[in-house]
Specification:
The chain is of the alpha/beta class. The chain has helices at about 5-15, 35-45, 60-75, 90-95, 105-110, 110-115, 125-135, 145-155, 175-190, 200-225, 245-260, and strands at about 50-55, 80-85, 135-140, 230-235, 265-270, 285-290. About 40% of the residues are buried.
Length: about 290
């Protein structure tokens, strides 16, 4: 694969590789050991719940459905945000939820295989549950054409039509130095043998990753603004969630600018298997292990 494609694929890989250090535990935790029921009770108080997945883990997807079903029993005013669908295809998702499209048609019309490509069976049960209960499902992600262009040419290369499905460029913040450092380490690992001397290559990659986060945060925030009685359960890769650097901090920033009411967010990492580095900031509110 050429350099242009490989940089974009690295953006996708970050969602798996950034949280590569996790502690295997037998029950969810926050501060001390809590039962699953206690964790669910706490999550039920939140406006946004992030369920951080490894995309090809069947167990993660089973856990997502289980948590969603338990939260729905406590409060049915739920929306589900999915990184797996890109913003231009929101009408396609809506048509599926309204019974106007089959699952096969949803996959085809949303270009699921081309734009996401992980096994459909991982996400079908959540979509089936949302359809059965008539829950809104939010297409969170940036169009891949836009992300690819940013990874090649930077944010300033985007024209008006390409900015239609992303936040204003003034809202795309790349000033989190800790997030930058984490991504630089991963990026350097991927490019140890690279002969490229382009000093802007990492910067464009970082802009593409941040654009992904900001777009998803924007969709979540706009939904909550229109529907303050709802809460949103977000299915996204762990790299968009850990330490709050990706989506959560950007939702908080947006909410603080439009509302005096605080929004409670909770993050859950599903089935972590290795040890996280000891850092001052907390990587997530809960680890959830159903293996």
């Amino acid at each position: 694969m050429g350099l242009r494609i490989s940089i974009f694929m690295l953006v996708i890989a970050i969602t798996v590789l950034l949280p590569a250090h996790a502690q295997k535990i037998s029950s969810p935790i926050k501060t001390g050991d809590l039962s699953p029921q206690e964790v669910i009770q706490d999550l039920a108080q939140a406006n946004v719940v992030y369920l951080g997945e490894t995309h090809d883990s069947a167990e993660d997807h089973k856990a997502q459905l289980d948590i969603i079903q338990q939260l729905y029993q406590k409060d049915p005013r739920m929306a589900i945000g999915m990184e797996m669908f890109q913003r231009p295809y929101q009408p396609v998702l809506d048509n599926f939820l309204q019974g106007k499209l089959t699952e096969a048609a949803l996959q085809k019309k949303s270009q699921y295989e081309k734009r996401w490509g992980y096994p459909w069976e991982n996400y079908a049960p959540v979509l089936q549950f949302a359809k059965e209960k008539q829950l809104p499902v939010l297409a969170l992600n940036t169009p891949s054409e836009v992300t690819k262009k940013v990874s090649r040419k930077g944010l300033n290369s985007l024209g008006a039509a390409e900015r239609k499905f992303i936040p204003p460029l003034s809202e795309i913040r790349t000033d989190n130095l800790q997030y930058r450092k984490s991504l630089q380490e991963i990026y350097a690992g991927f490019h140890k043998k690279s002969k490229s001397k382009d000093p802007q290559q990492f910067e464009r990659f970082f802009q593409a990753q941040v654009l992904w986060d900001e777009t998803m945060a924007d969709v979540i925030t706009q939904f909550l603004k229109r529907n303050p009685e709802f809460y949103v359960v977000v299915l996204a890769g762990q790299g968009h969630i850990v330490y709050g650097y990706g989506i959560p901090s950007r939702v908080a920033r947006r909410i603080n600018s439009i509302s005096v009411k605080a929004v409670v967010q909770r993050s859950v990492l599903l089935n972590p298997t290795e040890k996280y580095p000891q850092e001052k900031s907390r990587i997530a509110d809960y680890f959830w292990n159903n293996l």
